[in-house]
Every structure is written in C-alpha cells, then in structure tokens.
Amino acid sequence: MSEAENIKKVTDIINDSRIGMLATLNEDGALVSRPLAVQDVKEDGDLWFFTADSTSQVAHVHADPRVNVSFGKNTEWVSVAGTAEIITDSAKIHELWNQAVEAWFPDGPDTPGVVLLKVDSDSAEYWTSPGGTVATVLQWVKAKATNSKMSVGESGTVEL
Fold first, then answer.
1. Residues 39, 101 contacting (CB under 8 angstroms)
2. What would the DSSP string read from start to end of 21-58?
3. Does the pLDDT value for residue 142 go beyond 90?
4. Are the CB atoms for 69 and 80 separated by under 8 Å?
5. What does the pLDDT read at residue 92?
6. Which of 59, 103, 124, 151 would suit a FRET pair with 135, their CA atoms being 20 to 30 Å apart?
7. pTM > 0.90: yes or no
8. With contact defined as beta carbons under 8 Å apart, do 153 and 130 qualify?
C-alpha cells in the first residue's frame, strides 16, 4: 500500500474504535494507561481528546510528553506513538465540543478545568485480521497441519 493508503488505514481504525488507551509515564517512570474517547483524528494522524486539568494524564504529560495511544476493534488494531500537549484554548474547546463530552463535563465547554489533550502523532503500527475469529482459527489449524507459520492478515508501520 502507498503511504497515503497506510495513513488512511490508521485513521479508519481509530475512527471505527473511538476509544483509545492512552499510555503515559508516571512520576516513577512506569507506564500507565487509561481509556479516552478520541474527539478528532486529523488526516496526518494527530489526535484530540477532552480531559480535566486535574487528571494524572495531564500531570504526566507536563512531566514527560511522550505518549502512546492504542485502539482496537474486532479484527483491527493500531498503536500510535507521539508527543502530547495540553491545550486550554477556549475556541478550540468550543470547536470540538459535542454532546458525548457532556457526560463527563455536564456544565458544558466552559466547565472550569476542562482541557484538550492533543497528540502530535509521530508514527503508527497497525494490524488487521480479515475474516474475524473464524478465519484466525482456520489459519491456526492450517499452520499446525502444514507445520508452517500462521498468517492472519496484514500489518504496517506508518510515519505520520
């Protein structure tokens, strides 16, 4: 696939998944992950999330902005590496605001402490397994029967 097709594949998987596991480094240098709903995925793979300025992810990003966000749904997965920043711009918050966000911030986009977490994506790796679980099981049986390596789909690395 071309680079543009690979990037589209990555953004399609993210858009289909909607919930990503954001991994940051805590104050002890250990990886910590938590689910966040992606609000926008740019054509270049950059990601936007809403969060509160009092959360651990905001503190972690301030200390070390390197992050990873993984998404998966059914038979497709993607892992995005990048650099995060905390955005407090009210106009951008209003631009990305939607009704789903109100479940966490019922007072609306002007809720004190609401911020955006933007991930400037550097690279992504994706995996797909067409055909779902049945196809995976059949490939496993075939690999065992023929004493060969299992092949269940495609994968790729994309520079964003």
1. yes
2. EEEEE-TTS-EEEEEEEEEEE-TT--EEEEEETTSHHH
3. no
4. yes
5. 97
6. 124
7. no
8. yes
